[in-house]
């Protein structure tokens, strides 16, 4: 068997790291799927588990093609199947059923851990892709690019899921009065402000009406008090006669 050169040795190193991460996450995903009660979320995890297994197979083929042999791959697979391997994977994706942790809270913890692991995988595959392109290994670059797309899609899904699950935790664990109290107070303040403004407008309108009424009465009284020109002339005639 030909000796592996420096380029391929480094690629095999990176691919083995990626393969170890994929096998580790297989166990964590299986544990999370068992704890997930949200149907869309569970379905997406099951889909990603299939993707993860497919990624591991692609990596195995590429490692062997580059002359990495099967010993390193076999060691990773054996570790993932042992109790120690499962314990490490479980620690990465919390399968603890801590007393007092609600269902929604547990799924949120899992989603956050999955999101964190996706970020690590994205970093790994971007590195492999950049290295492979730089050294002219188009096949390895293609494999890394395909897997990277899957990981980025899963990361986007989990980002939205974290927001949704956080809202579910609020709904499940925070009393309604504490969820909407602030909103109600703001609404009450706005209503009181509008009512006060309306009252002031009414008062100004009422004052203006009273003022106009007083002016009208004064004008009427003034007209009544002035003598009529005809009667004044008749009075002066009678006086001369």
Mind explaining what this structure looks like?
By secondary structure, the protein is mostly helical. Helices cover 86% and strands 0% of the residues. The chain has helices at residues 6-35, 39-65, 71-81, 83-92, 103-134, 138-173, 176-225, 229-240. The radius of gyration is 41 Å and the shape is elongated. Residues 93-99 have low confidence and may be disordered.
Structural key phrases:
241 residues; mainly alpha; Ferritin; 8 helices; 86% helix
Mean pLDDT across residues: 79
Unreliable runs, pLDDT <50, ≥5 residues?
Answer: 93-99
The outline comes out as elongated
CATH superfamily of one domain: Ferritin, core subunit, four-helix bundle
- Which second-level CATH architecture of one domain applies? Up-down Bundle
Report the C-alpha radius of gyration, rounded: 41 Å
% residues in beta strands: under 5%
CATH class of one domain: Mainly Alpha
| Strands, count | 0
**Helix content class:** over 70%
SSE succession:
HHHHHHHH
Structural class label: mainly alpha
CATH topology of one domain: Ferritin
